[in-house]
Amino acid sequence: xxxxxxxxxxxxxxxxEGLVPAVGGLATALLPVLEAKEGVWVxxxxxKEGGKAPATLKGPVRLEQVPIPEREWQxxxxxxxxxxxxxxxxYFLERTELKREFYQDYLRANRRFAEKVLQVWREGDAVFVQxxxxxxxxxxxxxxxxxxxxxxxxYHIPWPSSGVFRILPWGRALVEGLLGADLIGFxxxxxAENFLxxxxxxxxxxxxxxxxxxxxxxxxxxxxxxxxxxRFGELAQDPHIGLQARGLKHLAGADxxxxxxDRLDYxxxxxxxxLAYERFLQSYPQWRGRVSLFQIATPSRTGVGAxxxxxxxxxxxxxxxxxxxxxxxxxxxxxxYQTYTQEELATFYRAADVALITPLRDxxxxxxxxxxxxxxxxxxxxxxxxxxxxxxxEAFLVNPYDLDGVARTLDRALRTPEGERRERLARLKRRIQxxxxxxxxxxxxxxxxxx
Length: 451
Ligand code: GDG
Prior knowledge:
By secondary structure, this protein is α/β, with parallel strands linked by helices. It has 2 domains: 3-226 and 437-450, CATH 3.40.50.2000; 229-434, CATH 3.40.50.2000. It is built from 16 helices and 17 strands. Helix 1 (25-36) crosses helix 16, helix 10 (270-283) packs parallel to helix 11 (305-325) and helix 10 crosses helix 14 (403-415).
């Protein structure tokens, strides 16, 4: 069957060095599928090369663009997607701006996507829609498809409890939009259950993981998305990266290197993590001079005010920690506000003794998986509010809001003997192997075909 992937963004971005894979979980997971299938990728925006597949893509893949006027883009993307759905689904209710104009632009943009998909769709093609930007699309497609269209949808962020989702004045329309799909996938059981309860609340009959919509059913399934294990397996073995990692560890000038890697986003808990680290240095003075935290924050959504404000706050706390703890012979914290190549990231992963991955909420969190898969004897400290925590049972789980708890667990992770760390990692790697990104897409699409 032919395949059409629809996502807000194309899986590449243009840099002075040419096209590079976009930063973000979505691109990481779907690029391998795109390369393996004869498919069309539909995304918003102007494509500099006139819609031709970039040279870096393998196979006969086509890219189709949905042009969205600037003002509408602001309302659809900067507004409804990133200032309504994103904060609400991550339980940041006070950041949710319920503006009707945002919703209207969201509706218009979703219609434009539908137009484009209907233009390129051929009988037999499956359509695989990605994420919260396009909740209305499945219904628009279902209503207008000239034949039987198979539609799958994957929701990459948390689906919140029904009580929270119902805050949205447009909640019912969004759920109806999504229910145009044959198969709806989530990362965890919790999100799937939340969605089913939300649909039931709006009056849709729900039974055994399915929702009745008129004379058809929409199936709801859990398909946790993992990483490209082939690629990260190679990075874990690469001797050159090993050498670089030893150099990096040396540069840290401390016995133990602690690592955080995130997009600079308030959901990722970077600020709270820095405060927890500060608490750790206060409460466990024996570690002063012996540990160093490297925090990588990748620039993200810099056009949204809340993200610029977060950057300011993070800069401030970084400055305070350095002001209070820095010594001539010890740098307790290094903060990198930039984007790295995947090889460079792997170097950080391999150098780190502990990864401190403490989002306040996260659909899954692929960084946690990448670290555990690449490290050979490190410890993963992971937020129990990330979707990944439902799958990675052998991580050191923490409540990211509990600064004392994070400090205590960090101390414990640092004191855990190598044998136990390796044992935990071995189990984690087996679990991550089973979540491989390519097999995720294959499993989802097979289930869609059977739907
Ligand atoms: C959304 C959901 C869900 C980061 N910095 C650099 C870089 N990255 C890569 C990481 C990882 C990806 O970006 C981040 O993925 P996450 O899953 O951690 O987070 P989101 O971007 O928020 O993704 C999330 C995901 O979708 C998938 O469904 O897990 O919950 O929010 O792969 O390695 N990559 C490079 N340079 C960087 O500086 N090359």
